[in-house]
Design brief:
This is DUF819 family protein. This protein is mainly alpha-helical. It is built from 19 helices and no strands. The chain has a domain of 192 residues.
Length: 381
């Protein structure tokens, strides 16, 4: 219970420090929260708290998504989404190409490489659910699947570190900065979520916003509860994806409810829950996995991630896509829906939040097809 309380309140301490130390605020509360979680994982034995960490991770992101979406300006989101769909398509192509090139490079060094390639593509264009579906489709063993899941977690953590800490700076070397397509009247309607600094979270403890926070939080809880109930009617293999899709749908519908959309606190309340999600995720880091790692298989994973990011960046440069849209689309493919608010928070670009979630959902839809196709092509190479 004490450890759960620490995970719930530590983001508040990080925000408090960042609000008072400009250098920390410039780094951003999302990277600081990840760094704090990694520091805890490396310095303490947290193996006894895995269930608490996982539960907080799942509950916090489930409640955060509708809270954030309630505040979304959907008309502006559609305007800003002009390049997001193309960027996502380029990301999917990049993952598939990198995976097939990796098959040529690691042929003979990685066992069951076609199955590995297919499952990796499923995970990095959709989600872990897609990886499981492709495991069944290709007849991969349970042992191989569990190894893939473990390596996926390890390398996804590394990917997120790059995106959150230096992604914008690196992408900016070859891609232009993000330029909003719309200004003016939209800014007046979204002024309550425009503060990217740590001080923006101060509204959560102001008495004037408590009633709105309670209403928004209750509505988010209702969204999650109904989504879980409905998804429970589906086969277990699809219930996780269905839950995320339903929560997202209900959150978007909530943006049309005037009292929810007008809340001055729902966005920052959702982002606070995202910070809890980041902290819980980071404390799950287990470096002992590296001691028994199959380095050929690890090398294949690293090649896919680095190769896909590099190829995707070059394609985005060719098609004139900006750095933030590139990073959000890359995250949508490789990390899926729950991490889109994390990435947008680290980029301090909320205009791409709804488009990012939309294209990440697209990844769920096509991940199985792409994984099976790549596995079939790899088998013939």
């Amino acid at each position: 219970m004490l450890f759960a309380l620490i995970l719930l309140t530590l983001p508040a301490l990080i925000i408090w420090l960042a609000a008072r130390i400009p250098a920390l605020d410039r780094i951003g509360v999302v990277p600081l929260t990840f760094a704090t979680g990694f520091a805890l994982a490396l310095s303490l034995d947290l193996s006894a708290f895995t269930q608490i960490q996982t539960t907080l991770q799942e509950v916090s992101v489930a409640l955060a998504l509708p809270l954030i979406l309630f505040a979304a300006n959907l008309r502006r989101a559609l305007t800003e989404a002009r390049g997001a769909g193309l960027a996502m398509a380029l990301s999917l192509v990049s993952v598939c190409v990198a995976s097939l090139l990796g098959v040529l490079l690691f042929q003979g060094r990685v066992e069951n490489l076609p199955q590995v390639a297919g499952m990796a593509v499923g995970a990095y264009t959709g989600s872990g659910v897609n990886m499981g579906a492709i495991k069944s489709a290709t007849g991969a063993s349970d042992a191989l699947f569990l190894t893939m899941v473990t390596y996926d977690i390890v390398f996804s953590i590394g990917y997120m570190l790059v995106i959150v800490l230096v992604g914008q700076r690196l992408a900016g070397l070859i891609l232009p900065p993000f330029v909003p397509h719309s200004q003016g009247d939209h800014e007046a309607n979204t002024s309550h979520i425009a503060d990217d600094s740590a001080r923006g979270y101060a509204r959560l403890i102001q008495r004037s916003g408590l009633a709105g926070s309670a209403l928004a939080f209750g509505a988010a809880g209702l969204c999650v509860g109904v989504a879980v109930a409905l998804s429970g009617l589906l086969p277990e293999t699809w219930s996780g994806t269905a839950t995320i899709l339903l929560i997202t749908t209900f959150g978007l519908l909530g943006a049309f409810v005037p009292r929810l959309h007008a809340s001055t606190t729902s966005f920052h309340l959702g982002m606070y829950l995202i910070l809890i999600f980041c902290l819980s995720s980071a404390t799950l880091l287990d470096l002992s996995v590296l001691s028994g790692m199959n380095w050929a298989l690890g090398g294949y994973f690293a090649f896919i991630l680095l190769g896909a990011m590099a190829l995707h960046a070059l394609l985005c440069r060719l098609f004139g896509i900006d750095r933030d849209t590139y990073l959000v689309a890359s995250g949508a493919a490789i990390m899926s829906v729950p991490f889109i608010p994390v990435i947008c928070g680290a980029l301090r670009n909320r205009a791409l939040l709804v488009p990012g979630i939309a294209i990440a959902i697209l990844g769920y839809a096509v991940g199985n097809y792409l994984g099976v196709v790549v596995a079939s092509l790899a088998a013939g190479m």
